[in-house]
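Exercise 7 asks you to align residues with tokens for two separate proteins.
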Amino acid sequence: MQLPPKVTDRAFARLSEIGAGTQGQALRVAVEGGGCSGFQYDIKLDTPAQDDLILEGSGEKVLIDSTSLPFLAGATIDFTEELIGARFVIDNPNATASCGCGTSFSI
């Protein structure tokens, strides 16, 4: 049995700040083929689909489709604010290598 991804309080708080839930939107985290390391994350606001895993907290939702779920097992979805900018980040224990941009990884 694979562990579902976790979403930090900071990530849910950021979704609340931008009013995602009040606009009927949720954060979609998907994994696609491509990027400089073989796979890349696609992170965007979206509406729930039928096969989504929905992670909820603070009145906000994070969506993960059934195809992406195995790639994100045990991962942590967070929000960070650094000098280079603020963004949602994924700490993925399944990734064996990642690139400097932080959006591409390999397994």
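Second protein for Exercise 7:
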Amino acid sequence: MKGVKEYMNLPYNYIINHINDESGSYYYARILEFDGCQTTGETFEEAYSNLKEAMEGWIEAKLEGGYEIPLPIREDNFSGKFVVRIPKSLHYRLSVEAEQEGVSLNQYAVYKLSK
């Protein structure tokens, strides 16, 4: 079983966003894989530092409680393929647009999704 230090060294996905709302201007930070592991900071650096502390506390609490710690989500965990059901009318419209662009429906869908 891994300890806190081993988990802290794994390549987890840190998400830090700059927020401007009724509370003011600050940075909101979270670990994608750890539900509820989040914090804020006045600067990016402070949010990052606070997130490392929050992450350590989150991992410690989960280990003490006997919970499994999720492993990092990595790009190689994905095949690049998923199935989406859409209305026939949308399928038709996308097929016509792809034809007009001279590309396959798959290529056109990737283009539309990447916007």
